[in-house]
Amino acid sequence: MSQQKADYADDAEIDAELDEVPDAETVEEAVANLEERGFDVIVVDDADEALETVKSQIPDGVSVMNGHSTTLEEIGFDDFLGEGDHDWESLPDQIWGIDDDAERQTARRESQTADYFLGGINAIAQTGELVAADLSGSRIGAYPFAAGNVVIVSGINKIVPTLSDAFDRLESVAYPLENERAQEAYGVESAIAKQLVYRRETEEGRTTLVLVREQLGY
Fold it and tell me: What distance in Å separates the CA atoms of residue 79 and residue 8, rounded to the nearest whole number?
């Protein structure tokens, strides 16, 4: 059953001050600092442009995997990947077609090394660091090294002044929303079990951040 953010967002108590859309000067400074740290950054105006940009980043014939991301859902990428109107190898289609639990878990681990791994991020420090967390690590495991290429999509509402603020946003915005989603979807609570601080990309051209001038995801 399709799940929308509106199905659970109203039940989560968040720190709204850490989910605001920043001004243009703040975004510009964040982009400059991210690029200085080795991330490629593409700034787009809206979700439709974000989807077209993401599609343009992925060449034909490669394997593609996505971690759960409300932002990817909101821009329409998950639907596009699942519908098959592309020339990529869609690893999620293969994984969720496996009936055996152990085999499916092995395939999920192997998918971390996809040619292109896509996902979201929980916070972006204006100083240029990215912060994300998972319960299982199935998303952030690919980001630092395993995947050949990483494409991260984020609304500018994820930008906060400092790395300390990014940790606060993870705790007081992203986690409450994800916890509500997990309870709605799976009947269990989530947890900030495995956390990534992505301070720098050392491999040129490997990690691209598509930054959307909208309030997206959490």
Answer: 20
pLDDT tens, position by position, 116-163: 999 999 999 999 999 999 999 988 999 999 999 999 999 999 999 999
The strand pairing partners of 212, in sequence order, are 44, 155
What DSSP string describes 196-218?
EEE----STTSEEEEEESS----
Cβ atoms of 158 and 124 within 8 Å: the answer is yes
Q: What are phi and psi of 37, to 5 degrees?
A: -90, 10
Q: Write down the mean pLDDT value for the chain.
A: 95
Tokens of 45: 């105006």
CA distance 33 to 38: 9
* Cβ proximity of 178 and 218 under 8 Å: yes
| Predicted TM-score of the model (pTM) | 0.95
8 A C-beta contact, residue 5 and residue 74: yes
Tokens 């959490």 locate to 218
Domain 5-212 has CATH 3.40.50.10420: yes
Which residue shows structure tokens 């592309």?
Answer: 86
- Give the number of other CB atoms < 10 A from CB of residue 213: 18
Q: How do the domains of the chain map onto residue ranges?
A: 5-212
